[in-house]
Amino acid sequence: MIETMWSTPPPMLMGWVTQLGFFVCMIFLSISLASGLYYAAELAEENTVMARKVLKYWIVAVCVVHVLLWLVDGMPFWQCFWGLAANAAYSTLLHEYPFVKFFAPPAIASILLFCIDTCQWYLYFIDDGTPGYSVSMIIGFFGTMVWPVPFGFFVTLSLSDQGLPGLGTINNRGDQSIQKKRRGILGILDFFFKRGTPTSELKGY
After folding, report:
1. Residue 183 DSSP class
2. Is the overall model pTM greater than 0.70, yes or no?
3. Cα(62)–Cα(75) distance, rounded to whole angstroms?
C-alpha cells in the first residue's frame, strides 16, 4: 500500500502549489545569497589585510590536503597535480592584492587552471572506476578544495584601473573619485542593489 501511495502522481492543484512554493523558495534563496555576498565583499573591502591572510592560509591548507590525498588516500596524481598548480597560480594574485590586472598572465593562468582543475575532478568523480561517493560528499569536496579560493578572490579582488581602457593607474592616489569608486564584485552589487533606490539621488535636491 505504501508503494502504491508513493507511486501515485500528486493531484494537479497540489503539483502547482508545490512548484510555486519551490520557485518562491529559490527566489528568497537567491536574494539571501546575494545579500551574503554583498556583506562579505563589504567586510573584505574594509579589512583587506585580514582577507589576504585568510586567502593565503587557505591556499596553503588546500595544497597540504592535496598532497595528503595523493600520499594517504591514493588519489590520482594528475588530479592532485592540477589542484596544486591552480592554487600556485592563485597565490601569484596575492602580490598585488586586492587589485588585479584581468589580462595579465597571472590572472589568465588562474582562470585557465581553475577550469582545468574543476574539469579534472569532475571527470574523476563521474568515472565508473571511481569508488562510490555520495552527492553531498562530492559537493563538500568541491566546496572546500576547488571553489573557495577562486570564489574568495572573485568577491574581494578589484579590477585594476590599468586593465580598463580610458582610466588611469591604481597608483594615482590624488584622484579621490577613483579611490571612492567601488570596483570588482562590490561595484556590480552596488549597481543592482542601489538601482531601485532613488533616495540617495534625491538627497541632493
Report:
1. -
2. no
3. 14
Residue 54 region by backbone torsions, left for phi larger than 0, else alpha for psi between -120 and 50, else beta: alpha
CB burial readout 39-62, b (16+ within 10 A) else e: ebbeebbeeeeebbebbeebbeeb
Residue 104 neighbours by CB under 8 Å, 6+ apart: 163
Predicted confidence (pLDDT) per residue in 36-53, tens digit: 777 777 777 777 888 888
Which residue has 538627497 as its cell numbers?
Answer: 203
In sign, the C-alpha dihedral spanning 38, 43, 47, 50 is negative
C-alpha cell at 201: 539621488
Burial of 160 (0-12, 13-18, 19+ CB in 10 A): buried
3-state helix, strand, coil in the chain (%, to 5): 70, 0, 25
CA–CA gap between residue 17 and residue 14 (Å, rounded): 5
φ/ψ of 114, rounded to 5, equals -60, -45
pLDDT tens, 89-134? 999 988 888 787 778 888 899 999 999 999 999 999 888 667 778 8
Please state, in angstroms and rounded to a whole number, the distance separating the CA atoms of residues 100 and 90. Answer: 11
- Angstrom CA distances, 167 to 160, 186, 203, stand at 9, 19, 28
